[in-house]
Amino acid sequence: MKKLAPSILSADFSKLAEEVAQIEAGGADYIHVDVMDGHFVPNISFGAAVMKSLLGKTNLPFDVHLMIENPDDYLEDFMTDNTAFITVHQEACVHLNRTVQHIKSLGVKAGVSLNPATSLSVLDYIIEDLDMVLIMSVNPGFGGQKFIPSALEKIRELSEVRRAEGLDFEIEVDGGANLDNVQELASAGTDIIVAGSAVFKTPDITETTKQFISKIRSI
Ligand code: DX5
Ligand code: ZN
């Protein structure tokens, strides 16, 4: 079943729990947690404390997307009862295999994300160990950017690799998803769709969440 992971990067932080309750009411599957350090990406978002402030206020699992340098130093901070995935960037990891094993040793699923200009081939010797591959369809750092079309071809290729090799990692796409392109993204082989501004910057967050879900589950 296709899943939706709204990104709280685009939420109103002054009423975060309330807006998270709205995506939960709309049937969202995960809370996508965009952590930015101002080094790996040219923006600072929030850290583990903000994510942890949602504990006890939602039943949704956390899908943690670390856009940070030296992620190994911070993995434990993001471990909570709600944490489902921790995803790191291939471009930020000198010892990617070690980092992936570190994530798994904490008892959560491990994802690796690729920037738009990074080839799928960088995953050749690690793909069997991954629970998720996150394809960036914008350059990471900001919400509300325009979808980069070459990501679609990348998702199709990755989906084919998964089929040909008999693997079962999930494919996630992140950046520029909206109600107009979400079905194409899902049809290309994406399992988990991240959407930030297209969910939170709308007048009725619950209703928009429902619309996304109905589109991705009807393909
Ligand atoms: C970008 C983040 C995305 C972002 C998506 O660096 O990783 O998750 O919040 O936002 P939209 O859906 O607005 O492009
Ligand atoms: Zn993200």
List the helices and strands and how they pair.
Layout (H helix, E strand, L loop, with lengths): L2 E4 L9 H10 L5 E6 L11 H5 L9 E6 L15 E7 L6 H10 L3 E6 L17 E5 L13 H16 L4 E5 L7 H6 L4 E4 L1 H4 L4 H13 L2
Parallel strand pairs: 1-8, 2-3, 3-4, 4-5, 5-6, 6-7, 7-8
Helix pairs in contact: 1-7
Bound molecules: D-xylitol-5-phosphate and zinc ion.
The site of zinc ion has 6 residues, from strand 2.
Task: Identify the CATH architecture.
Answer: Alpha-Beta Barrel
Q: What is the domain tally?
A: 1
Provide the CATH topology.
TIM Barrel
- Please work out how many helical segments DSSP would assign: 7
Structural class: alpha/beta
Q: From the alpha-carbon coordinates, what is the Rg to the nearest angstrom?
A: 16 Å
Secondary structure: helix percent: 25-40%
Q: List the secondary-structure elements in sequence, H or E.
A: EHEHEEHEEHEHEHH
Broad CATH class: Alpha Beta
The largest sheet, given as strand count, sense and whether it forms a barrel, is: 8 strands, parallel
Number of strands: 8
User: Ligands bound here?
Assistant: D-xylitol-5-phosphate, zinc ion
Overall outline: globular
Summarize the structure.
The protein has helices at residues 16-25, 48-52, 96-105, 150-165, 182-187, 197-200, 205-217, and strands spanning 3-6, 31-36, 62-67, 83-89, 109-114, 132-136, 170-174, 192-195.
What does this 3D model show about the protein?
This protein is α/β, with parallel strands linked by helices and 219 residues long. The protein has a single domain, classed as TIM Barrel (Alpha-Beta Barrel), CATH 3.20.20. It has seven helices and eight strands. An eight-stranded parallel beta sheet has the order 1-8-7-6-5-4-3-2. α2 links the parallel β2 and β3. α1 packs parallel to α7. The protein starts with a strand and ends with a helix. The structure holds D-xylitol-5-phosphate and zinc ion. Zinc ion binds next to β2. D-xylitol-5-phosphate binds next to β2, β8 and α6.
